[in-house]
Design a protein that fits this description.
With 148 residues, this protein is an all-alpha fold. 66% of the residues lie in helices and 0% in strands.
Amino acid sequence: MIRWSGIALMVIGILHMVVLGIDAAAEIPGWLRLELWTVEHWQPLRTQRLEVLASQRLEVLASNAAFWSTVGSFALPLIMIGALVVWLGGKHLPLPSFLGWSLLAWIVVASLIIEVSGFPLGIPVAICLIIGARRQNLRRVTLEEASA
């Protein structure tokens, strides 16, 4: 269960990068020219009051959105967490239970904020991590008691 959860995390992260990377591809030349390195990114996203004259241009907003939905997103760390889960499972090392619980909390909050998204795909994966870690810990305790 743990191994498959790790693989699922990697697949979700890769799918995220591929699906959103299609839109971001047009922005990559600008990123390579360091166009994200501007003070304009620190301006408010939109002007809500007449006194505030500076806000980000649409091109800057689009480039920012493309960056934060691909390279700057949680997709790459999700792939790394999935790889770590698979590696821990392969070495029969215990998986910390906080990993599944923290992923579940983050995914549920994000799912509630943006309903139509890929976030709900992570709910069963996080639940499997929680159950798998619990089973793993119970087995370890049972083995320790048996050897004592």
